[in-house]
Specification:
The structure is a single chain. This protein is mainly alpha-helical. It has one domain. The chain has 4 helices and no strands. Helix 1 packs antiparallel against helix 4 and helix 3 packs antiparallel against helix 4. The two termini are about 35 Å apart.
């Protein structure tokens, strides 16, 4: 029974981690799309050229090196880096807020668990035999 419990716990951890990552990437894609469309220094043709559906968390240095090989002007590259940075921060803020809300919701079912005190739990050691 212990191995079933351990396997279930490992599966739940893996699924939870995958869902958390998918949520963060979805929020990042939405934040990137909105920020790119609203940023005044990014021309519409550049925004259309960027593939925002395949977004991931890229550092500023990674994005700068990726955009360095393009024919974009320096101010456009700087604007794209700024949009990327703001979108990452927004995704992390919103994601952590959602995770905190889920954790708060989990407190309600947990509050219905029995409130045992250490001296109330029976001792699992065998009782000595009486003669």
């Amino acid at each position: 029974m212990g191995s079933v419990r351990g396997a279930t716990q490992n599966l739940a951890s893996a699924v939870g981690t995958a869902l958390a990552g998918a949520l963060l990437v979805a929020i990042l894609v939405l934040s990137l799309g909105r920020a790119a469309m609203e940023h005044p220094e990014l021309p519409d043709d550049v925004v259309q050229e960027l593939d925002l559906t395949d977004a991931s968390f890229m550092s500023n240095d990674q994005l700068a090196s990726a955009l360095h090989d393009t024919s974009l002007p320096e101010e456009t590259v700087a604007a794209a880096i700024e949009v990327n940075e703001q979108a990452r921060l927004e995704a992390l803020r919103r994601g952590l807020l959602i995770y905190a809300g889920v954790a708060l919701l989990a407190m309600f079912p947990a509050s219905r668990l029995p409130q045992y005190r250490p001296h109330e739990v029976p001792d699992p050691s065998p009782m000595p035999e009486r003669e």
